[in-house]
């Protein structure tokens, strides 16, 4: 334990230049509104984040700090009158370390929308799904781990874009609140990701094609601190990778239920879902081919307590479970998460220490190598 603490302190020191740079910029946080008039506003915001992770029983792991979700976004807002307003948002991920080996330089979100207090909000473009907004986000609480058992950011493309469960591309959504009920629906336009490959067997069609996706979600707030929610999603997909040159019907269908209770300083949430043709086989140890699994089930839970008046800002203690199960083998990914997070500078700065232990099984029911990880994260929201 002493060695672990020493390593954590050393990594905090190595990552310290990030805090030094962003702390100096904290006074400019009010400058995020770069232009404002009676009817228009332009906002720039984002995040700098770095993490160092120790993978247990992996001698070659170098623990080097790396970028962990840095991004920048621009938002343009306009007030039309009669309660209507419009916005355009563009958010891009970038690597704060400029590491050419990483692939986190990409468009995270890009959409335009109209909103009215009574008639709701319509968004068009690449955006977070109503599946995530109204249900799955309830357990998106951990600083480093999590989200492995809800299917949101899985699927055939980065961040759940293709099936529309995560940050859906080419999507149109509608969200509104009716009393104690929040509702959302979303539709995804077709996308052709097929290609022609020439080999020994001749020219064959590979890739996938999405005809459309539909999604609906609702959250019912039973009391100020108690809510239940549910979401369903379906995507019409033709898969040419299962058997090259042959179309295979690989429609994705998924469902999710959630419960959240937030009394006082507590935060308690749990979700459970079932996923058909969504989870990729390599998610579990023992599969040799990269394909969508016919059936998988998952559950996530988090319990957190916020401590006040012991440091500037607040200190949060949390624990939770991520458990994903293959529906047709003994494979499972079970992760127990414990952590502590310090949030300060008006919730702009975050320092987190997180530890995980695993109870995984491969497709034959055997325990694969590896038993979790320990990490430290530094983040600043500007």
TrEMBL record:
GO cellular component: cell outer membrane
GO molecular function terms attached to this record: porin activity
Source species of the chain: Salinisphaera japonica YTM-1
Signal peptide coordinates: 1-31
Keyword Signal: yes
Statement: the UniProt record of this protein carries the keyword Ribosomal protein: no
Keywords tagged on the record: Signal
InterPro entries: Gram-neg_bact_OMP, Porin_dom_sf
Listed Gene3D superfamilies: Porin
Designated name of the protein: Porin
């Amino acid at each position: 334990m002493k060695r672990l603490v020493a390593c954590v302190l050393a990594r905090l020191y190595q990552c310290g230049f990030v805090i030094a740079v962003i702390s100096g910029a904290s006074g400019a946080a009010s400058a995020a509104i770069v232009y404002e008039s009676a009817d228009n506003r332009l906002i720039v915001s984002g995040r700098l984040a770095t993490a160092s992770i120790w993978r247990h029983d992996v001698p070659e792991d170098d623990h080097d700090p790396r970028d962990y979700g840095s991004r920048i976004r621009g938002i343009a807002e306009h007030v039309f009158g009669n309660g209507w307003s419009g916005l355009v948002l563009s958010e891009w991920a970038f690597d704060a370390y400029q590491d050419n080996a990483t692939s986190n330089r990409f468009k995270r979100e890009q959409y335009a929308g109209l909103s009215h207090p009574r008639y709701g909000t319509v968004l068009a473009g690449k955006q977070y799904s109503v599946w995530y907004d109204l249900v799955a986000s309830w357990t998106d609480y951990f600083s480093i781990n999590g989200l492995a058992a809800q299917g949101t950011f899985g699927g055939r493309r980065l961040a759940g874009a293709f099936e529309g469960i995560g940050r859906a591309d080419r999507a149109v959504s509608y969200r509104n609140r009716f009393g104690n009920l929040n509702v959302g629906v979303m539709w995804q336009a077709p996308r052709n990701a097929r290609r022609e490959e020439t080999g020994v067997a001749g020219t064959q069609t590979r890739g996938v094609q999405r005809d459309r996706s539909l999604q609906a979600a609702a959250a019912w707030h039973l009391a100020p601190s108690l809510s239940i929610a549910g979401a369903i999603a379906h995507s019409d997909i033709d898969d040419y990778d299962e058997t090259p040159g042959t179309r295979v019907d690989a429609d994705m269908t998924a469902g999710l239920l959630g419960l959240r209770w937030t009394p006082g300083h507590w935060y308690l949430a749990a979700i459970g879902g079932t996923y058909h043709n969504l989870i990729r086989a390599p998610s579990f140890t023992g599969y040799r081919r990269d394909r969508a699994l016919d059936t998988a089930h998952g559950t996530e839970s988090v319990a957190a307590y916020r401590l006040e008046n012991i440091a500037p800002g607040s200190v949060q203690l949390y624990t939770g479970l991520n458990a994903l199960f293959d529906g047709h083998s003994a494979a499972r990914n079970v992760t127990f998460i414990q952590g502590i997070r310090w949030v300060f500078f008006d919730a702009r700065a975050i320092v987190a220490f997180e530890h995980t232990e695993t109870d995984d099984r491969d497709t034959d029911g055997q325990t694969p190598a590896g038993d979790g990880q320990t990490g430290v994260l530094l983040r600043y929201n500007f």
